[in-house]
């Protein structure tokens, strides 16, 4: 029987893997490809709500209500699924993107969810889709609802996503399976230098020390100019507005270390309040004495919280939960992610943290490695700080589907661990190496995320595409994935 795939592939490298997959497997064909403008459907048109077409036009062309989305709308978990979709789509709202969608109210999001469920549900049915393939964990709204519709229609889903280990990627069937894998006593241990720190290429340039204040660079100036051209064209002609804007921008840059470039990726005037608030934490004395738990905030919006965090994508809720399990006198030291913008960091977020007596918000220059070393344990949604901690014999508490949640020394909030039990955890380094080896024995060789090519400098892309296509073909035919559900399926 021929498999008819619904595929979400939005990058040139994954499109090449997709081409090899179809060319080398007679029983696999593409029913619908959602991706760039060269794909059947232009994926970003669905999150920006514009009319940009792909190779087969626009998904909404000549569409009328059919009822195909009712299976999702009437699902018992409808409210949770819709909330997840809204969270994923909000990253494209007006205050978070230069090319946003026009949705404003809660009802706007609800209406669009219903429309998109109906349209995508009908597309899956009309095109005879039998399987779905995702080249990352769904987290961009359009892939989110494709996955949700596939689930209620009973279509098998395969997800592949890159690992932090060079030339290795993972596979799974459902986002919250991430990190669940069985023991394998026969697996070869993966050598880990005791106390070593992983090389996180995406954090290069981030310092852990005090530094003089900065000033806007060329990237920031370009982002501000883009904001003015797209959002405030009339204000750009107002000298008084421009003077106030420049004054506020320079104040923010001067109050943060010069390596912290807050507006290099995106600028919106509403974000000035957030960064101005951050400068108020910079000039403080760092006290690492006594008992404390270290909680570094994760970058948002990102798949690691939006999809893998579950209800704890609300990081303030995770900190509130943590505070509720700590004995009197144990502090929570919270550090902002050095790449974070104002997304999900409004005044109410900081007010929630301020209401927790045990919370201290740290300056950006606080050394994360010193904090980990001194803490009783680290706490995170899914952040790599947990992986760094157990390598240093420090226990970790995770709230979401972290890839390392099955490793020695890692506790999950769903198991209701006590503060005392976590603190008493001793990590057997040999057991850690063996467990990591068991994980890697279940992973797959290859690069499926273009950003991770830097970790494999001698990558043969043609050979890589062939290997990845072969692995994916096996997974589509029912091969065992890296991560499994709680039932082991």
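^ structure tokens above, recovered residues below v
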């Amino acid at each position: 029987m021929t498999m008819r795939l619904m595929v979400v592939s939005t990058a040139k490298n994954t499109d090449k893997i997709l081409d090899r997959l179809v060319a080398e497997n007679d029983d696999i064909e593409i029913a619908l490809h959602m991706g760039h403008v060269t794909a059947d459907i232009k994926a970003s048109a669905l999150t920006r709500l514009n009319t940009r077409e792909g190779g087969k036009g626009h998904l909404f062309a000549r569409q009328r209500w059919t009822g195909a989305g009712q299976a999702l709308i009437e699902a018992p978990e409808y409210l949770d699924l819709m909330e997840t979709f809204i969270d994923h789509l909000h990253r494209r709202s007006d205050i978070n993107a230069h090319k946003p969608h026009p949705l404003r109210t809660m009802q706007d999001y609800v209406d669009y969810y219903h429309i998109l469920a109906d349209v995508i549900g009908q597309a899956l049915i009309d095109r005879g889709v039998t399987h779905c393939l995702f080249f990352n964990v769904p987290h961009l709204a359009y892939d989110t609802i494709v996955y949700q519709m596939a689930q209620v229609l009973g279509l098998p889903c395969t997800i592949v996503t890159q690992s932090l280990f060079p030339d290795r990627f993972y596979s799974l069937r459902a986002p919250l399976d991430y990190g669940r894998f069985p023991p394998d006593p026969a697996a070869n241990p993966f050598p880990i230098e005791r106390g070593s720190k992983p090389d996180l290429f995406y954090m290069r340039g981030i310092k852990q020390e005090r530094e003089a204040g900065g000033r806007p660079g060329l990237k920031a100036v370009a982002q501000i100019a883009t904001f003015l051209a797209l959002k405030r064209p009339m204000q750009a002609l107002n000298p008084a507005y421009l003077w106030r804007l420049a004054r506020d921008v320079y104040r923010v840059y001067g109050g943060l270390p010069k390596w912290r470039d807050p507006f290099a990726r995106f600028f919106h005037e509403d974000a000035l309040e957030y960064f101005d608030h951050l400068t108020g934490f910079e000039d403080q004395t760092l006290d690492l004495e006594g008992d404390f738990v270290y909680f570094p905030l994760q970058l948002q919006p990102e798949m690691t919280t939006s999809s893998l965090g579950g209800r704890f994508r609300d990081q303030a809720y995770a900190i509130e939960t943590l505070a509720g399990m700590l004995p009197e006198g144990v502090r929570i030291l919270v550090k902002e992610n050095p790449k974070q913008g104002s997304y999900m960091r409004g005044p109410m977020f900081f007010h929630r943290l301020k209401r927790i007596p045990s919370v201290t918000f740290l300056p950006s220059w606080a050394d994360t490695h010193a904090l980990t070393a001194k803490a009783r344990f680290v706490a995170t949604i899914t952040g790599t700080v947990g992986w760094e901690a157990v390598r240093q014999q420090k226990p970790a508490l995770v709230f979401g589907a972290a890839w390392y949640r099955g490793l020695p020394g890692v506790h999950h909030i769903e198991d209701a661990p006590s503060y005392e039990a976590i603190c008493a955890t001793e990590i057997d380094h040999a057991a850690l190496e063996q467990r990591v080896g068991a994980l890697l024995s279940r992973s797959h060789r290859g690069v499926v995320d273009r950003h991770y090519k830097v970790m494999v400098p001698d990558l043969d892309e043609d050979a890589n595409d062939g290997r990845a296509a072969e692995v994916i073909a096996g997974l589509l035919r029912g091969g065992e994935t890296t991560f499994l559900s709680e039932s082991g399926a």
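The mean pLDDT is 95.
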